[in-house]
Amino acid sequence: MGVDIGSRCVWCGVDTSAGSGHWVNRLSVGTTGDTVFWLPTELRSEDIYVDGWSCAECAGYECDECGKQIYLDEDVTDLDEMGHYHRECLPVEEHWSEAGETCGCGLHEEAN
User: Fold this and answer.
1) 110 lies in the same domain as 81
2) Would you state the torsion angle of the CA atoms of residues 27, 31, 34, 36, taken in this order, to the nearest 10 degrees?
3) How far is 25 from 80, CA to CA, in rounded Å?
4) What is the C-alpha separation between 100 and 89, in angstroms, rounded?
5) Fewer CB atoms inside 10 A, N or C side of the chain?
6) Quick check: 56 and 43 in contact, CB under 8 A?
7) Burial of residue 1, with CB atoms counted within 10 A of its CB: 0-12 exposed, 13-18 middle, 19 or more buried
8) Beta strands 2-9; 49-54: pairing state
9) pTM, 2 dp
10) What pLDDT is stored for residue 90 in this prediction?
11) Residue 107 to residues 14, 69, 93, Cα–Cα distance (Å)
12) Are β-strands 84-85 and 76-77 bridged in parallel, bridged antiparallel, or unpaired?
């Protein structure tokens, strides 16, 4: 059985339709009803498929330092490439760049 929730974010329930302010960076996502906390109780089942969207706030990673959500594509990775952090939560010397240069966060200049 499936549930179509329209343009709502499957994780937080925010409206992601055009004009909502959450439409541009939304991502198509599907999950099971037992992971969508805002659904009515009778629909919270792993047997029910939920088709919808994820807003950019929910699509990002959780920061491994502070535990808060990181907006989509705004995380930095540590030197071991094992974690995801807000730029300000990870010490500048731990920021990673494929080219071995600064990662582009702008904090390197402030540290020097």
Assistant:
1) yes
2) 10
3) 28
4) 20
5) C
6) no
7) exposed
8) parallel
9) 0.64
10) 83
11) 32, 20, 10
12) antiparallel
Nearest to 92 by CA among 72, 71, 78: 78
Q: Are 76 and 31 in contact (CB under 8 A)?
A: no
What gap in Å lies between CA 111 and CA 102, rounded to an integer? 12
Is the pLDDT confidence value at 14 over 80?
yes
Domain end, chosen from 24, 43, 59, is at 59
Judgement on whether residues 80 and 103 belong to the same structural domain of the protein: yes
**Tell me: the pLDDT tens digits for 75-95?**
888 777 788 888 888 887 777
The pLDDT tens digits for 26-66 are 999 888 888 888 888 888 888 888 888 999 888 888 899 89
| Residue % of the chain over a pLDDT of 70 | 85
Angle ∠(106,111,112) on CA atoms, nearest 5: 105
Number of domains composing the chain: 2
Residues 69 and 106 in one domain: yes
| Structural domain boundaries enclosing 27 | 2-59
